Amino acid sequence: MSFQPGALVTLSENPDCVLQLVNLDEASGSAWVRPWPLVQAHAETFTVCLSDLDQAQPVG
């Protein structure tokens, strides 16, 4: 599966939690994500394994 920065994703273990993909590093197998929707001007990012990501279903 191919992901692009800005895409909405979920974690395999928690499909109800939608995240926005900020950046990814395929060489290390990691991605930086933040909670979605953004509720403040600056949302903290955190790192997850690319293998833990699933494509989020479109909203609406």
Short description:
It contains no helices and five strands.
N-to-C terminal Cα separation, in Å? 23 Å
Q: Which spans have pLDDT < 50 for at least 5 consecutive residues?
A: none
Main sheet record: 5 strands, antiparallel
* H/E element order: EEEEE
Q: What's the overall average pLDDT, rounded?
A: 88
Tally of separate helices:
0
Radius of gyration: 11 Å
In what range is the share of β-strand residues? over 45%
E-strand count:
5
Keywords:
mainly beta; 60 residues; five-stranded antiparallel beta sheet; 5 strands; globular
Describe this structure in words.
- Strands 4-3-2-1-5 form a 5-stranded antiparallel beta sheet, with no helix packed on it.
- The radius of gyration is 11 Å and the shape is globular.
- The model has no long low-confidence stretch (mean pLDDT 88).
- The chain is an all-beta fold and 60 residues long.
- It has no helices and 5 strands.
What's the helix and strand layout?
Layout lengths: L7 E4 L2 E12 L4 E6 L10 E4 L3 E3 L5
Antiparallel strand pairs: 1-2, 1-5, 2-3, 3-4
